[in-house]
Specification:
Blueprint lengths: L4 H15 L8 H33 L14 H12 L4 H13 L4 H8 L3 H9 L22 H15 L7
Helix pairs in contact: 1-3, 1-4, 2-3, 2-4, 3-4
Length: about 170
């Protein structure tokens, strides 16, 4: 839900700008919002370059080594969100913010889109519990039966001790 907030705000701002009979006058908040939008556009372009263009260009230029680099995760989304809050109802701000949210690969909407099918992240979120918190159906099935003789007891203790401290390791 948090990842969708900037996109929803951009869409609502765009609809408000298209429905308004006259565009709102320029104000200090619009100027500051435009400044945040410029920062967000720069970050979105850099994240897009880092994600999709950098590696093929360096391969084309036959770079001997290609270092791994990272963009600015979530910073572009936050800057776009602030610009949308300050310039709500402005057609240029809402249109550019919506476009940059689409290309900002370090943003929250892209995180959700790229990890949507990942079971490790989202499986426990639907039920409110994680897999580790679920109680087994039969708790006694996890407990092994008690050893019947002294020899079984000694074999069990030896197995547990070898599991904890393998023979070739120091305790």
């Amino acid at each position: 839900m948090v990842a969708a907030a900037p996109v929803m705000l951009a869409v609502l701002s765009l609809f408000a700008a298209l429905r308004a009979p006259v565009s709102p006058p320029a104000s200090l908040s619009m100027v500051i919002g435009t400044g945040f939008l410029i920062v967000a556009i720069w970050i979105a372009c850099r994240n897009f370059y880092t994600s999709f263009l950098r590696y093929p260009l360096l391969k084309l230029l036959r770079a001997s080594t290609i270092r791994n680099v990272s963009g600015y995760p979530v910073v572009g989304t936050l800057a776009a969100f602030v610009s949308l809050l300050l310039g709500f109802g402005s057609l240029p701000i809402s249109a550019f913010a919506l476009a940059l949210l689409a290309i900002d690969t370090g943003g929250a909407p892209w995180f959700v889109a790229c990890t949507w099918r990942s079971g490790e992240i989202w499986d426990g979120a639907a039920s409110g519990t994680s897999e580790l918190e679920v109680e087994p159906e039969n708790p006694l099935a996890l407990v092994s039966p008690p050893p019947s003789t002294a020899e079984d007891s000694l074999a069990t203790m030896t197995k547990v001790a070898s599991d904890v401290h393998p023979p070739n390791s120091r305790p």
